[in-house]
């Protein structure tokens, strides 16, 4: 009886060992398979444009890989949407028509709506731009990965978000956007100087499609201010 029990115990132990081995092999195969799918999806994201493409696409992986994939996509989607808002402000046609004949007729000589528009536009633009800059900071990106994940998955996240073409693309974009922020702020400030001058001057009128001044000095000042705007 004892020998039979030993044999049964031995068989059970062997079966358990086989199960453990098969489980371990299966886990390795599963991880390799998911890692391959994850890398393929990341490569697709790398080739996308941060300001024009969609990043909030359905996940292609499973398990923890899926969570990391969604985390990366959510971040890139958030960045993309914020960048689009900034670009939308920069390309606002109304900003380009502040010093037009049509606006002079419609809102002059007090220019109440124009001055309010320029002030609001600048505040909104700088707010959106500052939030975009914060999004690109290393500490902001690292906050997105929870410490509950194992070092393997945290490393996987940082590998793509900080040590890959993603970061290079983001840094390139933010350098260009910072320059654009300076240009847009200068444009708004110089347009406001022109409008402020017209409000204070008062001695001007619109004739056909041209602005006419009663004093030469005022015309000279106006032309100088317009020249500064054109220099942008």
What does this 3D model show about the protein?
This protein is mainly alpha-helical. The protein contains nine helices and two strands. It has helices at residues 2-46, 63-90, 93-96, 101-107, 112-135, 138-143, 151-161, 165-201, 216-230, and strands spanning 204-207, 210-213. The chain has a two-stranded antiparallel ribbon. Strand 1 (204-207) and strand 2 (210-213) form a beta hairpin. Helix 1 (2-46) packs parallel to helix 2. The longest helix is centred in the first third of the chain and has 45 residues, at 2-46. The radius of gyration is 31 Å and the shape is rod-shaped. Residues 4-9 and 11-28 have low confidence and may be disordered.
* Coarse structural class: mainly alpha
Distance between the termini: 98 Å
Strand content: under 5%
* Biggest sheet statistics: 2 strands, antiparallel
Unreliable segments of 5+ consecutive residues? 4-9, 11-28
H and E order: HHHHHHHHEEH
Q: Helical amount among residues, as a percent range?
A: over 70%
Radius of gyration (CA) equals: 31 Å
Strand order of the largest sheet: 1-2
Overall strand count: 2
Mean pLDDT: 82
Q: What is the count of DSSP helices, taking H or I runs of 4+ residues?
A: 9
Overall geometry: rod-shaped
């Amino acid at each position: 009886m004892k020998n039979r029990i030993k044999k049964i115990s031995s068989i059970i132990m062997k079966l358990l060992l086989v199960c453990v081995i098969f489980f371990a092999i299966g886990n390795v195969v599963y991880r390799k398979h998911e890692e391959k799918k994850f890398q393929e999806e990341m490569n697709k994201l790398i080739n996308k444009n941060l300001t024009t493409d969609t990043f909030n696409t359905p996940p292609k992986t499973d398990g923890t890989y899926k969570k990391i994939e969604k985390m990366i996509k959510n971040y890139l989607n958030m960045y993309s949407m914020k960048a689009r808002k900034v670009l939308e402000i920069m390309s606002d046609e109304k900003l380009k028509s502040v010093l037009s004949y049509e606006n002079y007729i419609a809102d002059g000589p007090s220019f109440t709506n124009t001055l309010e528009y320029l002030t609001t536009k600048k505040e909104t633009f700088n707010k959106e731009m500052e939030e975009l800059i914060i999004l690109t900071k290393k500490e902001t990106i690292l906050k997105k990965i929870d410490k509950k994940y194992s070092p393997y998955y945290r490393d996987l996240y940082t590998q793509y978000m900080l040590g890959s073409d993603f970061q290079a693309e983001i840094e390139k974009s933010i350098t260009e956007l910072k320059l654009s922020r300076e240009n847009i702020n200068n444009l708004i400030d110089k347009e406001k100087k022109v409008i402020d001058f017209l409000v204070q001057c008062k001695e001007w009128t619109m004739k056909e499609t041209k602005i006419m001044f009663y004093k030469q000095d005022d015309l000279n000042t106006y032309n100088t201010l317009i020249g500064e705007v054109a220099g942008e």
